[in-house]
Amino acid sequence: MKKINLLFLSLLSLVTITSCSNDDDNSSASIEAKWELYQEGETLSTLETINNSCGLEVLEIKSGGTFKITGYYSSDVTINAAKNVAENKSTCHEYTEEGTWSKKDNKLTVKNGDDINEFEIIELTDSSLKLKETDEEGIWYIILRKK
């Protein structure tokens, strides 16, 4: 009976040690990718999902320390002005921004012209990137998912 208990405890220890390993360790996940803006908000519990009829903003973090943001916005335009008929229609427009980035430990710094933004990387996996920005206006959380 003692041998069975010892065997059982040995197996239990082995299972416990094995199950404690972190299979989801994404320390090797690369920040260099195309990331689509998914959610943002003032707290992690009140994040809002981004809905934009023109398209979601995409952040491409490139090797060599450069990045490109492609985003979309809509504007109302008046059509048929020649016929003196005011007809408003929403039109989508694309914009791009480019700059440089650097990462040290869990800090991501992006620079676009004179603008410098620093983010704390809360989580980086193969499928998502969670960032926290703290500035004079407060705290802002951004969730991006790999495109």
Automatic annotation (TrEMBL):
The keyword Signal applies. Residues 1-21 form the signal peptide. Residues 72-131 form the Lipocalin-like domain. Keywords: Signal. This is Lipocalin-like domain-containing protein. It comes from Flavobacterium seoulense. The lineage of its organism: Bacteria, Pseudomonadati, Bacteroidota, Flavobacteriia, Flavobacteriales.
